[in-house]
Sequence to fold (184 residues):
Amino acid sequence: MAEAEASKCLLALLNGVAQQLYFDKTEVTQDFLHGQLFPDMARDHFDAFYHKMTALLKSIATADMDHAQLEAFLTAQTRKQGAGGVDLEQAAALSRFWKSQRVRVRESLLSHSRWEPGLRGLSWRVDLQTAAGRGPVALMEMELGGGGQDSRFVCVEMDEDQVHQVLKKMADVQASIDAILQRT
Fold:
């Protein structure tokens, strides 16, 4: 019975850590988790345990581990028990937690990594203005929005030099993305 209770408390701790890290639940604090789940554990032991579980959960979530990766990771963690690893019960709890929460954690990480508002659409045209003697003018209309918000439209007018500057910046961004992709 004590083993089952410890497993429930560990799962609750992992859920609490996930609430803090990925679901913005500020009311779930380290003190709260200690008092509710492990009140009999010395504070320094709880703090070390809490930080170890937090680090493991961050590693698992950052890598978005699938079942095979998770099992390999947890097997490696059980082998280094004395050096900050986990025991079999803790590995089983981490595995159960990740199997049930992987999708939610991944969605949270993705939503936190998006810029808001995002670019929903882009249209442009070039107008020739002969009466004033100006050269061609590019008009770019961007549709911005995100997260269920109504769209906002922004219209930008650019001359030929400004268009070239924008195109250069876009080429620089593309080169940076390509360089990152080549490293991975």
